[in-house]
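Input set for joint prediction.
Command: fold jointly, output tokens.
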Amino acid sequence: MFISMEPSPLTEQIDQWFGSLMAGLRAFPLDFPGTTFHHARKCRRKLNAVFRHELEARKKVDKKCDDLMSGLMCTEDEQGKRLSDEEVVDNMVNLVVAGYESTASAIMWATYHLAKSPAALAKLREENVAVSESKGGSLMITHDDLPRMKYTAKVVEETIRMANVAPMVHRVANRDVEYGGYTIPAGWPVLVWVRSLHTDPVYYQDPLTFNPDRWDKPVKPGTYQAFGGGYRICAGNMLAKLQITIMLHHLSIGYEWELLNPDAKINYLPHPRPLDGAAMTFRKLRA
Ligand code: HEM
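tokens >
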């Protein structure tokens, strides 16, 4: 999908480089040997080099694939201008980081919370089995099924509210701003800690409890910013929700699962996840 590579030692290596890049994404920016940040930058350069190599190879033989890299190489704006090689490579790395780890993490959290909330899982399963049975047992869902998957949508929102890969967004004050008795001078970088908004008991009753039904009532405008907002709102927010919905459909109908260490401690940086990586056992429900 991204670069049409068959699994190989190189793709495994790429996976490891991405892992180290993610680990250093929010590390303290100390750029000298031995630090997580330094290692992440090194891996980023290696990823750039692999993608650059593939891009040059494709240009030489005018090779086009049905994948992201070819899509980026062919994209033209209204004036017929294409992306530079550097922009293609940059977008490749950024889209893997923004579009892959983000939804993978959300799917992990959804299964984690559902494993701990049997009542919620039962409701989710009931809804998804009903959708499937109404289509003669088909496991495929289409866009037309989404309006009937109301509980599933609530599970998706609640999962993303509880924890996601973007606990904060970055902004720069474009004028002096008075806030809470402080002045943020124009030009200052600002870290907006949206996770504290999503776990504020003023807006979300019992905020650390996984409760999909809280979404029966609309939230107060401005208090749910998991995908950021304004010009820089997450470009993949609809896609992300759709991917999680599809995974929940298949998982709830086809599997049951159990956390191996339900009390594992949770690490919140660089990305929230249980210390054991949310180890689970899965069992197939149907042949
Ligand atoms: C649960 C999943 C996801 C979460 C929580 C998430 C969250 C975010 C957040 C908070 C931002 C910054 C927005 C801002 O500054 O206002 C962002 C930006 C972005 N996201 Fe996502 N995202 C997710 C999935 C995805 C997916 C699946 C894709 C693409 C396939 C994607 C692509 C992007 C891109 C390209 C940007 C940069 C937008 C820009 O600066 O113009 N994201 N995301």
